[in-house]
């Protein structure tokens, strides 16, 4: 077999989840217990060490999570369809575990590492249940915070979907997970287009153009 697995202990029998780790491998094995309904019952499974900060916001179909981990080397992310997300690095002190409130689709989820931040775009598995009340199962952790700069409530999201012409459609497309990286792609295309028609000279400071 030669592959690690994240295992789900179903009541009353036990089963092993398929290999659902994306982008990187993890040797950590964690056992969860299925509770009634769609949520998972566990005992203090989520762990975010001091010095690490988690910020998140959501749309009906996606979760966006930024995990700020200073000085992390060789980051790895493991995730399971049951909503278990594990961050590891070269130094054990950077290990971080999140047991999300509900299930996700790992095959439709993505992550990348930039600077001190690990960015996750996760696809919710149970569409139609509305916004989640919180990110993780169990008690609130002091360093797991809502990203209020990107947060919109469910009513506002419905309004945007019903009237997209009154909003920045490109921004919403990326934020709502319709096209992964759409904002980045749009900015890259804009810069390439500007470079193609740029007639300024390197020593001509008056012609400098700032691209955003």
TrEMBL record:
A biological process from GO: protein folding
Stored SUPFAM superfamilies: HSP20-like chaperones
Any one GO cellular component localisation term in the record: cytosol
Annotated spans, Disordered: 193-212
Record-linked Pfam families: CS (PF04969)
GO MF entries: Hsp90 protein binding; protein-folding chaperone binding
Entry's family note: Belongs to the p23/wos2 family.
InterPro entries with a match to the protein in the record: CS_dom, HSP20-like_chaperone, p23-like
Source organism of this protein record: Haptolina brevifila
Protein's name according to its UniProt entry: CS domain-containing protein
Domain CS, first and last residues per copy: 49-136
């Amino acid at each position: 077999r030669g592959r690690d697995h994240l295992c789900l202990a179903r009541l009353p029998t036990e089963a092993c989840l398929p290999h659902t780790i994306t982008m990187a491998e993890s040797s950590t094995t964690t056992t969860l217990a299925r509770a009634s309904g769609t949520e998972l019952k566990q005992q203090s499974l989520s762990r975010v060490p001091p010095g690490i900060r988690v910020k998140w916001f959501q749309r009906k179909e996606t979760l966006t999570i930024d995990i700020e981990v200073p000085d992390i080397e060789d980051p790895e992310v493991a995730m399971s369809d049951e909503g278990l997300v594990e961050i590891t690095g070269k130094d054990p002190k950077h290990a971080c575990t999140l047991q999300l409130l509900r299930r996700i689709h790992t095959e439709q989820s993505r992550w990348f590492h930039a600077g001190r931040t690990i960015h996750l775009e996760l696809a919710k598995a149970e569409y139609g249940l509305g916004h989640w009340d919180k990110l993780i199962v169990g008690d609130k952790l002091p360093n797991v915070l809502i990203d209020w700069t990107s947060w919109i409530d469910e009513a506002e999201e419905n309004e945007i979907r019903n009237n997209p012409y009154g909003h920045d459609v490109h921004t919403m497309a990326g934020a709502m997970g319709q096209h992964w990286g759409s904002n980045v792609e749009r900015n890259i295309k804009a810069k390439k287009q500007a470079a193609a028609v740029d007639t300024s000279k390197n020593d001509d400071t008056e012609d400098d153009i700032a691209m955003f």
